[in-house]
Design brief:
Length: about 475
Amino acid sequence: MSASNSPASRLTIDYRNVMADAIGEEHGLTPAQLDAIAGKVASEHERITAEHDAGGQKWMDLPDDTALADRITAFAERARGQYRDYILIGIGGSSLGAIATIQALANPYRNLLPDEQRGGPRFFVLDNPDPEKMRATLDIVDLPNTLINVVTKSGQTAETMANFLVALEALDGAVGKEQARKQIVATTDPKEGLLRQLADEEGYETFPVPPGVDGRQTVLSAVGMIPAALCGVDIHGLLAGAAAMRERSKTPDLRRNPAYLLAALNYLADTERGKAMLVTMPYADALFGISDWFRQLWAESLGKRLSVSGEEVFAGQTPIKALGAIDQHSQIQLYTEGPNDKVISIIRAGEYRNQVAIAEPPASIGELAYLRGAELGQLIDREALATAWALTQARRPNYTITTPVIDAAAVGEFFFLYELQTVMAGALYGVDPFGQPGVEAGKNATYALMGRTGYESLRDELLAGAGADSPYIAAPKG
Ligand code: PA5
């Protein structure tokens, strides 16, 4: 399926419970507020479109790269027959999209399936530089039959490069240097960076991280598509779904453009009604990874100190991930009765991929009779409806996004929807949604503390404040 004959978008957004009609004017939005922001949305749409036409906003073009998807499909077909294990090494935007895609579209116990049923290698992720996870991963994989995919846009992220060096040494030890380099594929900038340099020196197969696209928007590039294809995901379907959402989102009309509508609702709820947090709560385990991926996108894109004109604004709405129905037994008490400072975005699946009938309850336990003849998908979906109702009763703004099914096209739709929503929200907050200067500060401090050349003065500065004689350190007396 190519992007040009993509299916129509299928997501539905029900935002009645964000509106004042449902929850009152103190917490809900009015049609007049949406009308008032519609002009700004339309003019920002013109700006974004003009930037795209002039060669910017490159992330929007990723759904069109079906040639890359063909290359990745061919690569994955070979690799799926060849390897028993696959390790993705990358962090943040270099792994969250892949994890979300595979969680949504592969069997949740895929790694436990017998080789002949799994259809491709087992999937492991090394994102955190956690020595215990590294040791456990290297102990469990079959290194001579393992493909390592190191993914970093900058080519130098400390966590990724450290994890890669450890895994590489283990692979070298298991199969020898010559063979090891054939079992590595690097996804990185086509021209720049330390990983690019190493890949060229060692002759690794490489795939590009598209220049001009931030890490958190690369899910529809080789960054997300290689892991997805290795795990059997229909990556052309992903791109087609994203293209369908792009098509639907071409209108400047905020009530008809789902991405702009969500951007406006969240922005207004935050700035006009004090809803400084946004909870994304799918009622499907498969979609939980998407709320994790979105959490990074919303946080890193909007959480900015400076506006585009250089004023301090400290913008952003804190994204929270939750999972229905599990978090009804953990978080909903807080969301319903605690501070009224959140918007809750519920995600429903119209249809689950399996139907599981609830077995006949014992006749002696009459209180369970309500489960008679029901099935699990019906129960979890009614819980989504019940939660929306209960939140609304408590005057908590909530909206529901429904996908009729969970398939590759639907996941592609979510990715594009949330990416465009984020770009428009950045415009409404008046911040640049690209770049992540706050992340860079921590990265640089890590380099300094680890002794990287060129970071000496930052290291001195950091160590100068590290004295252990502070009255504000509570430690056991030694
Ligand atoms: O969105 C981003 O750009 C970041 O979250 C990066 O993805 C993350 O810091 C990892 O960077 P890199 O891909 O350069 O290793």
